[in-house]
Structure formats: structure tokens, C-alpha cells
Amino acid sequence: MQSRIRDNMHRQAGALKVLFGLLEEEFACLTGRDPQAVTGIELSVQELLRQVAMERVALRKLVVATVPGAQNMADFVATLPQEDRGEFERLLREADEREQACAVQAEKNAQLAYALVEQSRGMLDFMHRQIQPKDTTTYGRSGRYAQHHPQAALLRGRL
User: For 139, phi and psi rounded to 5 degrees?
Assistant: First the structure.
């Protein structure tokens, strides 16, 4: 059972390494303003996160099957003989470090994406202000210049 848990942790470590690489690539595409590439990478990131989540569920089941009542990997590691603890503690530490690195990179990506959205929104607002007529009564309903009557006018009509 320990070997299955170890293998699962190795797969998760590899997945987190790939995830960090994808997040760095996404950042490069964001700075290069390549939205199609960002979309493709984001889909890959989401699929990888789904797979990591499935691995974690499987790991939790393995740990509970091995050590009934265990809440996390630390509980499992505490039950191991001293000579086996070192590798599992190292794997846990590496997984935590990689998760932290991925979280930092994901936050950078999110901030950059938000800044690009705000920049685009500001540019669109500026362009709309520039093309809108200053005088709102410039055009009539028919698309022609409206005749402006600043003084009072009589209405003519038929009954």
C-alpha cells in the first residue's frame, strides 16, 4: 500500500511541475497578448487540475484504507517506521513548495489578465467618448441634421 501511495505522490509532483510550466507559459502569452494561445493553455491547466484533484481523492482513499481515521498525509506519515518517513516527508515538502509556486504564478497571471481587461475597457471607453457627437441633438430620427429651434415654435397639424 505504501508503494501505491508513493506512486500517487510522485504523479502529483510531476503534475504540479507541469502545471507550473503551463502557468509560466500562460504568463508569457499574456504578456505577448496572444489570446488564442492563452485560451488553449487555460484549457490544459483546467484539465490538469481536474486530474490532480482525482489523484488527491484516490490518495485520500488509500491513506484512509491504510490508516483508518487518518485525516491527512501527516497522520499517515506519523504511523510509518522511522526509516520510511524521510521519503514521504520529502515528497510532502516538495508538493507543498510546488503548490506554493503554482499559487504565486497563478496570482501573477490573474493580476495581469485583470490589468489587461481594465486597459482594454479604458481604451474602449476613450474611443466611444471620442466618436460620440458632443451635441446630442446633431442628428434627427431620419438620420439628417435636425433643425434646431432655440425659441418656442408653434405646432401645425391637421384635425
Answer: -115, 145
